[in-house]
Structures
1.
Amino acid sequence: MMDWNDLQYVLALKEGGTMKQAAILLRTDPTTVSRHIKRIAIHFETDLFKMQKGGKWVLTTQGEELTTLAKNFKKGLDQFQLGEGGSTECETIVITSLEFLLTHYLSPKIESGMNCFPDTKLSLVAADRRLSLAYGEADIALRFGRPTEGHLITSKIADISFDLVQLRGTKPKEWIGLQEDLDWTPDMRRGVGHFGKPPILRVSSYAAAREAAIATGHATVGPSVIMREGGQLETMPDTSPVHREVWSVIHETRRLSQRLAAVRTWIKNAVLEMQLQQHNMA
């Protein structure tokens, strides 16, 4: 008898393209991925993948048919569990984002979130890497900028402002930024554009950047909600905020989930309410 859990390995190899990348998506090893792929191919007595030049695995016609079946099965199961008249079994919804969004915008409103839909629990997971929505690592992701990859349902939540800041009463000539893999972000580009050079110090979070700026007297850039804490830092003269869009993202197979719709509505309202509070306190 076929194990439906094997299908996640087929879907992961389709997305990753290689055994190694599929293993990373599923947090396992390439040997395990290969073993499950072979097992399901034996069950159906057909090759599900073929290797192209460069070592990339692509689905055969039979493999495409199987993944379509798997997606439809999961979609039907979601509708049965979450649709009207379906099961009301308690479910934990995993929301993933950068830590500061969870800390400053969702956590203060978590009580209303826990009550936004019957038999629903929430789990807020801070992660620098993107957790997979397709393979169940997370149910909802909050991302900066509208995602362009396929099979995702997106909705804009808000604009978050980022400021270039300095210690009050100083005129810094150096600045503090995040790690190099984030040099592409608008806020990091603002720092490079203003100072004409990379940061003298790099840290792993906006909160760390704020503390380092206070300790060293160097400038830094980050979300206004973090940089305004304590009042030690001020916006640098002749600079304007950088605005970045925050989007709520789910996988297309969860499109009809009433539970996810309710949680996404709570997320949007929570962010807007916290922004209003922050504006009134500024």
2.
Amino acid sequence: MTFGEKLTGLRKREGLSQEALAEQLGVSRQAVSRWEQGAALPDAAKLLPCARLFSVDVEWLLDEEQDGEDRLSAAEFPQGTERPSVHRDRPWYIAGGIVTGAGSLGMVTMGILSAVFPAVVSEAPAGVEWVRVYTGLAGFLKAHGVEWLFALWAAVALAGLWLLAQPPIRRREQTASQFSSWYAAGVAVGLYGVGQTAWYVQLGKLRDLPLLALFLAAAVWCTVRQFWRLGGEPDKTRRRQERIIALLYTVAQGVLLLLTAEAGFGLVALVLHIGVYFICAAAITWRRSGRGKH
């Protein structure tokens, strides 16, 4: 097995694209491509970092007489030795767990306080014939004016979930997927903002109209950019599948927008928007990993 074949197998085993490997070794993608094609070999300064990255020895990489199938499998790592990707992912999981735990603890604490000190708040907006009554957690937050604090804890928890989601999302993006998790998140945030501000506008807060327009423009821009990126996928079947997933994702976010604008779900709607986002990201990852192919 040649050096190029070994390098290709090791790179795919770790779920790295040529661009990602080139970035970690400090070379160009074209250099990695030449190595894998057998047109050139890395210089001595790059061989050792390359071997360390994949937890193999330089001699094995260069010796074409040594078989490589066993080392290219997950069983290659000695007992007690972790894959390189595990070391790269650990900081994300630790930070995400701490931040998510802190945000969740803050929300749970406020929930307990709302049970210990119950409050009831009613709202009767001018020009309407209905009265909205808030009880439980919502009543406690409004009565004490700490809605912002609960929203802050929720934002901290969501930031923690974002950190926890980074390892699989980054691995998916390294497989050259045209689907952008950033644009998908922009659609979710934009449409949630549209729904929430539309609800406030219905309550008579017309000063929120410019904010509504801003959220709407952001959501439309992210949607257009997402579909434009998906158009660059060279595989027609994969392009069609990912466009269908992106379309269903946008429709689902739009339905949540209508529900929020009509009923003002608030934090519940935010959780649903985030949930749909992660479902979509998981569906794209599943398709890219090949498990979704028949």
3.
Amino acid sequence: MAILFNLAPVYAQDLRIRIAVGEWPPYFSETAEGYGTYAKVVTRAFELEGLQVEYGFFPWNRALLETKDGRWPVSAGWGITEDRKPYFHFCDPVLTEREQFFHSTDRPVRAASFDDFEGLSIGVLHGAAMGEDMDRLVAEDKVTIFRQSTLEDLFKMLRVGRVNLVMGNELVAADAISAVFTQGEVEKYQPLEDVDVRWDYRVIVSKQLKSGRELCSRFNSGLRKLRQTGEYDRLFKHGSSETSDLDNGSS
């Protein structure tokens, strides 16, 4: 579904930026105010450059394909990988956070390094990159990967023992755990302490768009303005506070 987020004045049609994303609360959600904290930052950065945006929500792997083919020339929330470089311009990082590996205390996993994952089954979101260490384990056939469209579905698999670990962004995973499990169950699902992947989450622009490099430059300019004025911190802090309030009130 396409959603026009019209904070800026109405500009010419060719100045409207079409952005394909998926559900990834609290950063992106079709039902959240402003479509999530990450979406608010992206919208404001473009707005400061005189551009309005339109969001389309898709499964994440389709969102990436829509952007690759240029139908929705922009997407957001992606890391740089070698297989993506031929198809996308990568803007400056909007956010740097950890992808963690969650296990159930009913079936605990002990790992000090990625090599300790050998023989395990790991749940990963469709379209999500895993990082060099995980890619190596997959290439060496040392781990089994199961893909789902949502972290909620992956954590349901973890609950019944279909996977040993779930890989997910630390804040997004916390939101998913609170959505799936009762308050008494939440504490059963914990991240490994010694193994994680640090990602820069970026806006990407299709190389099918002739002005794609310029569009990245304009976004980067708007993002710098947000950081310089402190609005960037206010947007993310406000969203984190809302999430904490929801988590504290969940049953």
4.
Amino acid sequence: MPRRVPGYELLHLLTMAQMVQRLPGPANVLVVGAGTGQEVLRLAQARPDWRFTATDVSADMLALARQNFVEAGIAARVRMHVGALDALDVGQGYDAALMILVAHFVPHDGRKQALFEAIAHRLKPGAPLLLADLMAAADGWERPAHKHACMTLGLSEEAADAVLKGFESDFHSLDETELKAVLARSGFSAPAAYFRALGFAAYATTRASGHAEDEPVRLDSAQEAV
């Protein structure tokens, strides 16, 4: 992954910094698309007073995550959920949610919107959501530059070409206007970027809490059409 996502380690470092600053006390964190649990491992080490719910549609990935949690001595602090997020009970609500390099795999045909709505439904009012995705290319140079960066990081030209081909066939990337619209319709505030590296970007947003600064942003006519 670090050779396919330029700035991968910096992305995780900045995500952890954002989370630690936003949640100064004990917290219950929802991790969507947890995979093998790398984000949970990093955050659990930084904050021993946090608990986590790790979700993923892949039982195999979560089985690997569970093994990693046991080896790290944090298994007692992590709840596991295999399957769709809308099958996860809401409970008392989560203090924060994390979704790193996940939503770009979800088609923009109503399923991406439903995913963000499911996250919002499980967050406490005012709780932050931190997300990172491959965004739509800003211009015609961005993807070729990405290929060059991947090769500089150690991929062969053939492997770097395969990365770009995968972007076209397997990813459902939004531009920032589309992302802002999806978040607004889901009950989130306007996103603030905290990381960018070629096509990859990370954003922080919050679930609406009833305060003016946390209300979903109003869409202009162009955004309503997204």
